[in-house]
Design a protein that fits this description.
This protein is mainly β. It has one helix at 48-55; strands at 4-11, 17-27, 30-38, 58-68, 71-75, 81-90, 96-101, 104-109. Helices cover 7% and strands 59% of the residues.
């Protein structure tokens, strides 16, 4: 199985909308992946020299360990628990449609 992709949007600390992309793969009975924040696509709010930094993607590692079907303990990049939980939300057909993490819903996307 290849990576599973989940996407959402959020308002960042500067008040701009940015896309968030999470890619998860199976690894030793757990999930490992990355979360990438893509800044605003419009450069109209930034000076030309700031353009590259403003639109640069920021990526961090993450993980999840299942404690029952569809429910996980969140892990840091080193595989240690961080004290929060996530879950997968299924549609009427039984397929995963969403990943809920820290109250935010990420839509499942085909990679």
């Amino acid at each position: 199985m290849g990576p599973r992709r989940y996407t959402a949007q959020r308002i960042n600390d500067e008040g701009a909308v940015e896309d968030v992309v999470v890619d998860l793969t199976r690894h030793d009975g757990q999930l490992r992946g990355t979360r990438t924040f893509h800044g605003p696509s419009s450069a109209s709010d930034t000076a030309p020299e700031e353009e590259e930094d403003a639109s640069a993607a920021r990526t961090s590692g993450l993980g999840a360990a299942f404690y029952r079907p569809d429910f996980t303990l969140d892990l840091d990049d080193e595989g240690r628990p961080v004290g929060t939980r996530s879950d997968f939300v299924r549609g009427p057909d039984g397929k995963v449609l969403w990943w809920r993490n820290h109250g935010r819903l990420y839509r499942h996307r085909t990679v």
